[in-house]
TrEMBL record:
The chain crosses the membrane at residues 6-28, 62-78, 90-110, 122-141, 191-212, 218-243. It is found in: Membrane. It is a multi-pass membrane protein. The keyword Membrane applies. This is ABC transport system permease protein.
């Protein structure tokens, strides 16, 4: 079932955009500009990416795939970095984590024959892994800052009683990882029951047999779950150390930011 969607029908979707826009105006939520800008930006980005992918799909896989994956990882790194600008070396840490995760997942897919090394398979699936890993890192960074600020008194008390920074931070790190991983865990629990996942839906709409679509969805869902878990753990275990100095004293975010800028 391969057919094109009329361009004019896409403009009719703007009717749905008007609903949250009206709600934002009525309740004075202050989101009118964000909604309009996000809609315009998202539409433009998708059409631009469509043109880029059309060009990359015509290149040799050994050239097109690395180019697109590099762009994805760099953009994801810049976006996730905003959640943890106070930390030193946050950019290189996120970049390293995303590269390691993507290479590991891609190697697994290719080694076990799950996908072929072609742009139309590698790029969309890798994009889902990179995107979800980016979100997980951003959530972990935000929650990590929140936990250390809210539990500052408990952390200082633990340190004063002789706990090491790792021991004192254990509970905060645990809560951070729970917050970053629970949405993905819940989604995996209800996959196929509450909603048909995006990749599976797309393949079925494209005419692929449901059982084949399910196999692909399982590959990407389990890969995303593992990648998200590793991403959150990776960035949390690296960044929590910056809350402590060499004398095992707890630092504030302002102090961490100053040291990062020095």
């Amino acid at each position: 079932m391969e057919r094109d969607i009329p361009t004019y029908s896409l403009f009719l979707l703007l009717v749905f955009v008007m609903i949250p826009l009206t709600i934002s105006y009525y309740y004075s939520l202050g989101l009118k500009k964000d909604i309009i800008w996000s809609t315009i930006r998202g539409t433009a980005q998708l059409f631009f990416v469509g043109l880029v992918l059309t060009y990359l799909f015509d290149l040799r896989p050994i050239i097109g795939i690395p180019i697109m994956l590099s762009v994805m990882i760099i953009v994801a790194t810049f976006h996730a970095r905003k959640k943890g600008e106070e930390f030193p070396n946050v950019f290189i840490s996120i970049l390293s984590g995303l590269v390691i995760i993507e290479l590991t997942v891609l190697t697994m897919w290719l080694s076990f024959g799950m996908i072929s090394f072609s742009p139309d398979e590698v790029i969309p699936m890798s994009g889902m892994v990179i995107g979800n890993s980016m979100v997980a890192m951003g959530l972990a960074l935000e929650r990590l800052k929140s936990e250390f600020e809210q539990n500052r008194g408990q952390l200082i008390a633990a340190l004063s009683l002789g706990a090491t920074p790792k021991q004192a931070a254990h509970l905060s790190i645990k809560k951070t990882l729970n917050a970053a991983l629970i949405p993905n865990i819940d989604q995996l629990k209800t996959i196929g029951l509450v909603q048909l996942p995006g990749m599976m839906t797309g393949l079925i709409l494209g005419g692929v047999a449901p059982i084949v679509a399910i196999k692909y969805q399982l590959v990407i869902s389990i890969s995303i779950f593992s990648s998200v878990s590793i991403s959150a753990i990776f960035i949390s275990m690296i960044m929590y150390r910056f809350f402590f100095n060499q004398q095992m004293q707890l630092l504030k975010l302002e102090d961490i930011k100053k040291s990062a800028n020095d």
